[in-house]
Structure formats: C-alpha cells, structure tokens
Design brief:
By secondary structure, this protein is of the alpha+beta class. It contains 13 helices and 19 strands.
Length: about 400
C-alpha cells in the first residue's frame, strides 16, 4: 500500500525528521487560506497523487500569493495526473499539500528498500537529489551508493557515516545527517515498509536538513500489525480492478499488455507470463487465484479480467491440485452465464479431475479453446491476437 506524501511526512515528523510547514487541503478556498496560514513569501502547491514525476506533469507549482494558490489548486483538484509511473488510467488528485518554500543549498537522495537477491534491506544514497533516481542509475551508476543492512544488527552508525562521506555531506553536518539516516531505518523496520524514499533531503539556508518529499510503500502482508496505517487505505486511490481483487482475495497486478492471465500459483503465473512473452505476446496482468480457490473466487477473477478493456484474449492456466479442475470449470461455467464474454478464452487444465473439467467446459455453451500444454496455450493466445487484428 502506497502512502500519500502528506501521510508519509506525518510519520517522518513523529520520528523527528524535519519537513516543511504545510497544510493539506481539499478545495481551492482552503488553499488560499492555507497560503496565509503558512506565512511564507513563496509556497509550493503539490498534488497528492500516488505517482512519481508529478512536477513534470504539472502537479507541483510555486506560488507567491493567496490567489495563485487558489488558481493552482483549482487546476489540480479533481483532475488526473499521467506520468510514466502512474496507473494506466492516471492518478487522481483529491487533495493538495500547501508547503512553505525554502531556500536550498544542496539536495540529496536517500532511500531504503529490500534487495531481493541478497534477501536484506539496502540503503541507497546519491548526491544528485531531486532527480529521478532511475535516470541517475542509468546514466551515472557510479553516483549511486549502496550500503547493505545486516537484518540482525540493523543500520550501524559507521555505515551511515560511510554514506555521508561518500556523497559529500559537509563535515559539520555529518552528525545530523547520520541521525536522520538512523531514524529512516527505524521507520522502515517499525512500519514494515517495502520502500522509504526521501527525494530530496535538502540542506537549507539555516543549516538544517529538511525532507522536501517522501514516498513510502507498506507491505500489504504486514498491515494486520498496523491498524493506523491500514486505516489510511482509500479505495478511491486504487485502481477499481485492484480494489475488486483485494475484496475478492485475489492476487492481481495490472500490467500494460492485452492477454489476460488467470493462474493458480504465483510461480506458475510467472512462468505463464514468461511463455506469453517468449511467444511474442504481452500479458495484461498477473493474477493468482491461489491453490485453494473455489468456484466463487474463480468467477470473481474472471470478472476482473474481462473488466479490463485492454484484454483481447484470456488465458487460463490451471494445475488441479488443491483446486480441482472440475471445480474450476464449474466456476467458469457459472461466471460466463452472468458475463458478456466478447474475447476468446484459452484454457489449459492439468491435474485432478482434468477430464471432468474439460467435459464441463465443453457443455457450458461457451467456445473455450482447450490447450494440451503450457506452450500450446501461450501460442494459441498470441495467435488469436493476430487473427483478430
């Protein structure tokens, strides 16, 4: 679950990391009043949307008067922001953050995430703050400093000082910088985050560090331990299909392809997506109904697939173990009775009660295309795209 900037900054403030004075508002009139409340000669109006690259998309504006704050808020609220990182349908803006403008001397990037290959957290830092870290990593990889964190002992002060030296923190500011790094690590651990990113952490003219922007991603699997964070989830911020999948208990990630996939098992789902790619196609999603899914969950998953207007072919790849093939087939047959299926559906069944499952599909009245192997299923799905072009 991703947090809005203002929500992430509340966590920073609780931990003692400075952020600019700011007020979150929902209307242009509130934005005008917030400018006066902040009392700074310059303020930043920042769209609160769950996407990166807001500045390039017009989601961050500097304003000098209450009227300018009103106008900028009017232009952002109720709109959608489209960036390279936004959802396919854009990121909605329902609030804006009005913050005091600051005179900056230097900007740095700080972040913590999990290195999946090493199975350990890694602290990432860069002296080129304020820029997209992905672009810096691509063009100047030598500027990216990584320090791996031993899970048992956590981030150590000597590691923080090592990073501070590597990115050129002035000697007189190293103690304060190290303190901020250690606090970021505490937030990362205590809140069960997958990512915490401060970009930029700015050194301002009064010789203090201030977090100008912050991104946090919470591990969904740990939300049961964090009622305060779970309450921040707002379905209006989510892709409608993502929210429907969450309610149905389906593991679903929407992608940008046109072959919808429904599979039982994360590993099998990844292998299915790889096969589609190897056959020249593009998967529209990752969707794992789970090994113990029943007919209702299968039907819900199919509804989610068909609701994606980008999907031109559906590929169902099911290994019947805990989820028997006949149970899957019953779910599909039940689902199609209440759905208008306008796209071809390829089904590959293997495992328990396979023959019964194929029989049920054959008698459902739908023209399911039954494949007899994963490669054949992927080739059939990709071939149907070509025939429909």
């Amino acid at each position: 679950m991703r947090l809005h900037e203002y929500q992430a900054k509340e966590l920073l403030t609780r931990t003692g990391i400075p952020v600019p004075r700011g007020v979150v508002v929902s209307t242009p009139e509130e934005a005008r009043a917030a400018f006066a409340q902040i009392g700074a000669p310059i303020a930043m109006v920042k769209a609160q949307a769950l996407t990166g690259g807001r500045g390039k998309a017009g989601g961050i504006k500097a304003v000098h008067t209450p009227d300018e704050a009103y106008q900028s808020a009017s232009a952002m609220l109720g709109r959608k922001i489209f960036t390279s990182q936004s959802p396919r349908d854009g990121a909605s803006v329902r609030k804006v953050l009005i913050e005091a403008g600051l005179a900056l001397e230097r900007e740095y990037y700080l972040g913590i995430t999990v290195d999946r290959e090493r199975a350990t957290p890694v602290f990432i830092a860069c002296a080129s703050g304020g820029m997209e870290i992905e672009e810096v990593a691509r063009t100047h990889p030598e500027r990216i400093i990584r320090e791996y964190i031993e899970p048992v002992f956590g981030l150590q002060p000597y590691q923080a000082r090592k990073i501070a030296s590597a990115i050129g923190i002035p000697r007189t500011h190293i103690k304060r910088f190290v303190d901020i790094m250690l606090k970021l690590h505490i937030i990362f651990l205590v809140s069960d985050l997958e990512l915490i990113e401060v970009n930029p952490l700015a050194l301002v003219e009064d010789d203090d560090f201030v977090a100008l922007d912050c991104k946090m991603v919470v591990d969904d699997g740990a939300l049961f331990r964090h009622d305060d964070l779970a309450r921040l989830y707002d379905p209006a911020d989510a892709d409608p299909l993502d929210d429907e999948a969450r309610q149905a208990g389906v593991n679903y990630i929407r992608l940008k392809g046109n072959i919808g996939c429904m599979v039982n098992g994360a590993g099998l789902a990844m292998a299915t997506m790889d096969l589609i790619k190897s056959c020249g196609g593009e998967p529209a999603n990752f969707l794992d109904v789970g090994g113990g899914a029943g007919a209702d969950k299968v039907a819900a998953a199919l509804r989610i697939l068909l609701a994606d207007t980008q999907v031109e072919v559906v590929l169902l790849n099911i290994f019947g173990g805990i989820l028997r093939c006949d149970v899957l087939a019953e779910g599909l047959a039940s689902a199609v009775k209440s759905l208008e299926v306008k796209v071809p559906v390829v089904v590959r069944l293997e495992g328990t009660n396979k023959e019964e499952g194929v029989r049920i599909l054959g008698e459902s009245g739908m023209s399911f295309k039954v494949a007899h192997g994963m490669r054949e299923a992927a080739e059939m799905a990709v071939g149907m795209l070509s025939s429909n072009a």
